[in-house]
From TrEMBL, chain B:
Keyword Metal-binding: yes
Coiled-coil positions: none
Protein name according to UniProt: Molybdate ABC transporter substrate-binding protein
Disordered as annotated region, ranges: 1-28, 60-79
Length: 261, 305
């Protein structure tokens, strides 16, 4: 309970200090909506990228198909423990205009990543990917391999076993990982401002807008923060209770069915 | 070189006399105490803190101990004029660090028994600390606006220096920038400070007064970030303060901007209303206004009034 209070009390204080009377006036100007829309777009894209890139890696990790799994796991978690600003500097060193890879991207294809919306997605994916890999890895490990074997031994084709047994069991883990990755991407600040920069409508996401507003006008910063908090809460609660609950129920039924056969 | 000393709010044995004893380099202790108090207030509001009374009282006692230690330094009698001795606490904008540590060392050398503790941080944070009652003697901010925050808690505000903008480019100047007008070129990668921070407000004013339409690729969150982008070659040009460009030395190419001469960012000094050591504060301000002080500021790239 103390832990819960510790986590919640700051938000209660934030809500209490909010300029409720002028809230609509503070948020009514285009920039706030622009930043929110950019954040939602980039974070969704990052979550999809995380699933596409992360699930295969998590599958390899969960099935001990990689050499030095301990080292690989440590490398995967690195963006989680490093300050995101360091991630931003590292991304610049690799993909910046004079970066290791960025130099060639520029020379060969004329592609310059920094200060573009694509750079925002790269930065967000970089910091969010570990969350997806770790949760999917854990979910896959929790799957009893005998389930698929049993299903196969009972005459299920490979496709049938994958569709009716493996997928339902794994899907909640992937969905949970995707939600976590989305939430992390939505709140991403350090790597974004360092690697992608800050320009309205292109790279100024909500967290960047909040940071800058804090330099000039605390009321606007608080108002923007509350919008971000509200959006995060809605997304997390909705996905957890409805979608994930549904998927988890589905998975439980899948397990029951597989077990019953 | 001069090592920067930082303010330690906890009482030090060297509050007077021994002078040179190094205080612990706790970064922004005043701010952390402030934050701790806020956090406690938030927790207390939710009615869940059992040990609430233990922590603030220790914080408060350390604060008073330090200020009383400092004022006992000023109280040391030496004829009719108060002696310049004891502990002087100076809160100053980060951009002043090199020049102030140099001047501080000279003042300490001239007044045995004087110990100057600097706390360098963002002006806005320092002004908040003064408002919160930090036991400091002097406040030096990098803009008039930030001094306004603390206006009710300080006396004798005056402008002692100014900073203007210049263009910096990577040393090889890949964008071939020569004038402010060249920044209008859309192919140029350009960083300006965000308008929310002082250097960005100044940049916007310079560009507007010159009647130019300049669209940067990014708005840097502070002047150092803008400088770093030019330094690393991520942008072809950035508008930064003269002092930052000077500090970067050969790592960037500096292009003077005649149009920027009229947009001066003022640096203000003020004495904290309840300064524990007003005599030493006055001595420090006198040095800042002296020929020597003005020369040191000019060397660092500042304009002096």
């Amino acid at each position: 309970m103390l832990a819960l209070a510790f986590l919640v009390a700051p938000f209660v204080a934030l809500v209490a200090s909010a300029p409720w009377g002028e809230m609509t006036a503070l948020l009514d100007d285009g920039p706030a909506a622009e930043a929110l829309w950019l954040s939602l777009r980039t974070a969704s894209l990052s979550a999809v990228l995380c699933v596409v890139l992360g699930v295969p890696l998590a599958w390899l990790l969960a099935h001990d198909a990689l050499p030095l799994p301990g080292l690989v796991r440590a490398l995967v978690t690195m963006p989680m423990v490093l300050p995101p600003v360091v991630g931003g500097v590292a991304l610049l060193a690799l993909l910046g205009r004079r970066g290791l890879l960025g130099e060639h991207l520029d020379a060969w294809f004329g592609v310059q990543l920094p200060f573009t919306t694509a750079a925002v997605v790269v930065a967000q994916t970089f910091v969010a990917l570990p969350f997806l890999v770790i949760s999917v890895d854990a979910a896959l490990r929790a799957v009893d391999p005998r389930l698929a074997q049993v299903a196969a031994s009972l005459g299920g084709s490979r496709w049938y076993v994958f569709r009716r047994v493996t997928l339902p069991v794994v899907a909640p883990g992937v969905a949970a990982g995707a939600v976590l990755a989305f939430a992390r991407a939505l709140g991403e600040f350090g790597a974004t401002i360092t690697f992608a920069g800050n320009f309205p409508g292109v790279t100024r996401t909500m967290p960047v807008a909040i940071y800058l507003a804090l330099e000039r006008d605390r009321a606007t910063a608080v108002a923007l923060s509350l919008v971000l908090v509200a959006v995060s809460l809605v997304v997390l609660v909705a996905l957890r209770s409805r979608w994930l609950g549904g998927l988890a129920g589905l998975a439980a039924r899948g397990v029951e069915m597989a077990g019953a056969r | 070189m001069n090592a920067a000393r930082h303010v330690a709010i906890r009482p030090t044995a060297a509050a007077r006399g021994e002078g040179r004893a190094r205080t612990r380099p706790a970064a922004r202790p005043v701010a952390s105490r402030h934050v701790a108090a806020l956090a406690l207030a938030a927790l207390a509001a939710s009615g869940l803190v059992a040990c609430a009374d233990a922590v603030p009282s220790s914080g408060a006692s350390s604060g008073t101990a330090s200020s009383s230690g400092a004022s006992s330094g000023t109280a040391s009698p030496s004829g009719t004029t108060p002696a310049v001795a004891g502990r002087l606490v100076v809160l100053a904008a980060a951009s002043l660090e090199p020049v102030l540590t140099e001047l501080g060392d000279e003042l300490e050398a001239a007044h045995p028994g004087l110990q100057i503790d600097f706390s360098f941080a963002a002006s806005s944070a320092l002004a908040e600390q003064v408002v919160a009652g930090a036991p400091a003697d002097l406040l030096l901010t990098a803009s008039a606006a930030t001094m306004t925050t603390a206006a009710e808690h300080v006396t004798d505000q005056s402008v002692f220096a100014g900073n203007t903008l210049v263009i910096v480019t990577p040393p090889d100047n890949p964008g071939k920038v020569a004038t402010l007008k060249d920044l209008e070129n859309g192919d140029l990668r350009l960083a300006l400070c965000a308008e929310e921070v002082p250097c960005g407000a100044a940049a916007a004013q310079v560009i507007e007064q010159a009647g130019l339409t300049v669209t940067p690729d990014t708005y840097a969150e502070n002047v150092t970030a803008a400088l770093t982008l030019a330094l690393t070659g991520e942008v072809d040009a950035a508008l930064v303060y003269t002092t930052d460009a000077k500090d970067a030395g050969e790592a960037v190419r500096t292009i003077e901007v005649p149009e920027a001469a009229s947009v001066v960012n003022d640096y203000l000094v003020a004495t904290v209303a309840e300064a524990p050591n007003p005599a030493a504060a006055a001595a420090f301000r006198a040095l800042l206004d002296s020929e020597r002080g003005r020369a040191a500021l000019t060397d660092a790239g500042f304009r002096v009034p």
